[in-house]
Sequence to fold (170 residues):
Amino acid sequence: MSDQRPASDALTEEDPDEQPEPQVFREEPLDYDLEELYNKDYASLKGEPFDHSPHAQPFLIPGLPDTAVLTDKLVRLNGAEPQTQANFFTSLNIDEWEEAGDWFLDRFGETIKRLKDVRREKRKAARAFEDEIEVRETAVSKKRVLTRAAMVEMKTSGSAVLQGTPGKKR
Fold:
C-alpha cells in the first residue's frame, strides 16, 4: 500500500502551523466624512431615519413644486421613462416607499375591479342574448307545431275531398 492520500483529503487537511489569513473588509462608503461623523453626537445620529442619506439630492419633477404630495408625483411620473422612475423611487424614504406601494396596490385594485365589472357585464349580456335565443326558439317551435298541424289537417281534408272523385284510369 502507498502512503499517498486521495487529493480530496489533501485539500481538506489544515496545517497546524499555518496562520489563518486575516479577513479583509471592504470599506463601504459612509454617510458622513469621518471628521463630520466624529463630531456628531449619538443622539443626533439615533434621531435620523434608518434610510436617511445626507448626500442624496432631492428628486425634482418638472412642473411640480418640491412640496407636492407623493400621489401627485406618482401620477406625474406614470408615463415617464423607466430610468427616471427608478431614480425617483430610489430617492424615497421608507415611509414614502410604503405609501407609493399602497398607491400602486390601490391602482391595481381599481384595475382588477374594472376588469371584474366588465366580465360581469359581459356575462349579463351573454345571459340576455341566451334568453332572447330561448324566446325565439320557443316561438319557432310553436310555429313549427302549428304548421305541422295545419299540414296534417290539409292532408286529411284534401284526402276527404279526393275520395269522392273518380280515380285515375289506366
Q: What stands out?
A: DSSP finds six helices and no strands in the chain. Residues 94-163 form the longest helix (70 residues). Residues 162 and 168 are 11 Å apart (CA to CA).
